Amino acid sequence: MRRITKGLAALSSVALAFTLVACSGDKEPAASDNKAADPASLSAELTWWDTSDAKNEGPVFQDLIKQFNAKYPNIKINYQSVPFADAQNKFKTAAAAKTGAPDILRAEVAWVPEFASLGYLYSLDGSELLADESDYNATALASNKFDGKTYGVPQVTDSLALLYNKELVEKAGVSVPKTWAELKTAAQTIKKSTGVDGLYVNPAGYFTLPFLYGEGGDLVDTANKKIVVNSEQNVAGLNVAKDLIDSGASVKPSATDSYGTMMTLFKEKKVAFIINGPWEVANVKAAPAFGGLENLGVAPVPAGSARAGAPIGGHNYVVYSGVPQEKAAAAVEFIKFMNSAESQATLADKLGLLPTRKSAYDIDAVKNNPTVSAFKPVSESAVNRPWIPEGGQFFGPLDTLATEVLVQNKDAKASLDAVAQKYKAEVVPSYATN
Description:
Keywords: Signal, Transport. Pfam families: SBP_bac_8 (PF13416). This is Extracellular solute-binding protein. The chain is of the alpha/beta class. It has helices spanning about 15, 30-35, 60-70, 85-95, 110-115, 140, 165-170, 180-195, 205-215, 230-245, 260-265, 280-285, 330-340, 340-350, 365, 370-380, 395-405, 410-425; strands at about 45-50, 75-80, 105-110, 145, 150, 155-160, 160-165, 195-200, 220, 225, 250, 270-275, 295-300, 310-320, 355, 430-434. The chain contains 18 helices and 16 strands. A 6-stranded mixed beta sheet has the order 2-1-3-14-6-15, with helices on both faces. The protein has a 5-stranded mixed beta sheet with strand order 11-8-12-7-13. Strands 9-10-16 form a 3-stranded mixed beta sheet. Strand 9 (about 220) and strand 10 (about 225) form a beta hairpin. The two termini are about 20 Å apart.
């Protein structure tokens, strides 16, 4: 893989002076100039690609933009909602062509090292955006690092948890399960005593990770540069998920739009347990039949034989390396506003999203939010993913794997071997295989 483009050296944090002024010689960027600027004097037009859910989350981000414009009336934000599933490749295509890329992107955590390695992002080192770096959760900030530089700031952090319908759990008289075996029993009991399905396992790559981690597995060993996705631990983890479906503890997942099916059944109280993240809290809250957040339970994902483990997730604000210098001041101010502790508290209060700033947890809207309180320990104990440029490419093959094993009933070991071969051929060819 091409690790650094020809132009990236010229776009280093010192040379591009993203703190708003050009640098010469050893002179430090004059970041303070921006702090003293009259907000009304800043004029620019910025395009922001928002990859959040357009229906459930997008309106809240648009409200924040209105608040930003009340302070910065001459900075026009071209807000564009870009489907998450399309955004990674769409951004790479536009950046490679040097046309059509946004000035600012809401990037999934695994995308940042990849985009940075290709020269598509500004390094933010030395800019005002990292002046309060110590206020960020260290795990969330880590996904923005590549080759010793920082290319983004963490917007939200998240992880997968066990979401459940309190009413159904209490009606069936079961305890909140702490292991996959306990989940199997609880789901079967709920089905038998209430007639409602106990569980829905989503057959998607990201959602298989708690099963793999639960048996001590992983995708790659970055320290030893080895592909381990087809390990015996991962075979065991997939078979745990498969057994939940084969035993009837879980609904047989749909081959198409399984995620949408899962959420519809959960919101309509037709399934008691699902594995999902805080980004769906607003969706569940708005569901007429569910019973509000008072009926939503949140617990860590169940443990396998080795541990309980869910992947760290979240999104970061990044700046396209093609943004002209004259827009830099406006871009910095926009991200600073959107990612302030107060703005993060708004997202937590209205959407249940987890702040990445430590100071945000001191704000009443966050402190008093039961959903955030429930998800915070889930996120803090999450498993770090490999922060390498290829990290965002692991999930296409995993999605195929999940469908093959959990929907098409194919052999777990054979499908994992195929993923390992795909990784070796197309994703991390320099890594060794088992």
